[in-house]
TrEMBL record:
GO terms for molecular function: oxidoreductase activity. Keywords: Iron, Oxidoreductase. Pfam families: TauD. The keyword Cell cycle does not apply. This is TauD/TfdA-like domain-containing protein. Gene3D superfamilies: Clavaminate synthase-like.
Length: 244
């Protein structure tokens, strides 16, 4: 089974770093339910290995639908007074999600070990994910802030230091004028179908207000079930010294 139910520990508990490394996810408790706690949690977890924090964002939903399995990554560079400024990075290696307001019902979370899941796929699909370049965000072309240049990459790659990245984005399309576009489109559809089949069977876990779900964004995908009423989360992505 590739599903993950993370342990919950106090944010100041020294075991948190080990639990995150072992399982790819951990839930931190004991901090105020405010956005600043995301930065505090990141500092406690990663210490001097923390390199870049990206601006936190708040997600507020009313009667929200399913958020399917995904990895948090995006490529957003904006112009601030004439200076290019990165607000998101395609290879953010960790994400922190704080539940600030619990929905009256629903909204349970789920997570998956993406390395183990993709390793279990049929050999030809697994080879496609590791060997075929795609435009990772091409489906979102024209969104303000996205670069005009396609972001070319593979779903399974390794960093300079050998760390594996297993990506999941619903923005992937074949490269512009790729002669193999028909096959790439078909393989992307097979990949989507495989992900859709696995998520209903994943174990669910419930976050309490103030809990911070921390995920190794290179290894784990996550999502949440539909909910009724209002639900609010604060999210922050980051890069550590291990991202290079």
């Amino acid at each position: 089974m590739t599903g993950i139910v993370p342990d919950r520990v106090d944010a100041a508990d020294p075991r948190a770093r080990r639990l995150l490394a072992e399982a790819g996810a951990v839930v931190l408790s004991g901090l105020p339910a405010v956005p600043d706690s995301l930065t505090v949690a990141a500092a406690l977890l990663f210490g001097t290995r923390l390199r870049e924090l990206y601006p936190h964002r708040t997600r507020h939903s009313v009667d929200g639908g399913l958020v399917p399995l995904h990895a948090d990554s995006f490529d957003v560079v904006v112009d601030v007074a004439g200076t290019p400024t990165r607000r998101r990075h395609p290879d953010e290696d960790h994400v922190l999600v704080m539940l600030a307001r619990q929905a009256p019902s629903g909204g349970e979370s789920f997570a998956l070990d993406a390395h183990a899941f993709t390793d279990s796929l049929p050999p030809d699909l697994r080879a496609f994910l590791a060997d075929s370049d795609v435009d990772l965000y091409g489906r979102w072309a024209g969104t303000r802030g996205l670069p005009a240049t396609p972001r070319v990459g593979r779903h399974i790659e390794h960093t300079r230091t050998g760390r594996r990245i297993t990506r999941r984005t619903d923005g992937a399309v074949p490269l512009h004028r790729d002669p193999d576009a028909e096959r790439v489109t078909a393989m992307l559809a097979r990949f989507d179908d495989a992900v859709a089949r696995v998520h209903p069977a994943l174990p669910r876990f419930t976050l309490e207000e103030g809990d911070i779900l921390v995920l190794d964004n290179y290894r784990c995908w996550h999502g949440r079930d539909p909910h009724t009423g209002e639900r609010t989360t604060h999210i922050q992505t980051l890069r550590t010294a291990d991202a290079g």
